Amino acid sequence: SYVLTQPPSVSVAPGQTATITCGGDNIGTNSVHWYQQKPGQAPVLVVYDDSDRPSGIPERFSGSNSGNSATLSISRVEAGDEADYYCQVWDSSADHPVVFGTGTRVTVL
Amino acid sequence: QVHLVESGGGVVQPGRSLRLSCAASGFTFSSYPMHWVRQAPGKGLEWVAVISYDGTTKYYADSVKGRFIISRDNSRNSLYLEMSSLRPEDTAVYYCARDGAVVREEYFFDHWGQGTLVTVSS
User: Fold this and answer.
1) Which residue from A minimizes the CA distance to B110?
2) What does the mean pLDDT of chain B come to?
């Protein structure tokens, strides 16, 4: 089955940029979506279709996708951005169409 | 605004059944595919099942196929998950989630409920 690999953790100082990678075989051919999940809360969609933002999501959140890696970037990081982040794709040709990444814990120093 | 509220979770013995419900409001429920996604304690997210906007098409993760049934009642703006032959590894918070696209499934999730905890234990 398709595997999406994320770094377990990323640490970033306030005001800096956090970069979270999501690796997968030819992931650039899929649309990638990103979710933020704070402790005890439901996930929230922060980027869809590689780089689009839902209404209400700050412009500080941006995404890109090419080749074997997708990236979620959070610029001007704030304490409130501390959370787990998951990438996700839909592989319509697979037996397991929906795949989530392993998740990345972002810690604001 | 979109509101999804799950209910029906609890503690159940292995091999028994449980039915989860999700009440939807704030949008035209009958126009959207709906999903169930679960998260075991301290673990990542796992997609469980999807149902088309009109209820005619359903797909399941291999881990629940043959044991879980997803359904919906558009007249009641409600989504359901009938779980049978439950196993300890089914222990998780179960979220209902709206598909990000109208009518045609795009398999991403733009709104989530708060989740309901299912614990399978003797």
Assistant:
1) A45
2) 96
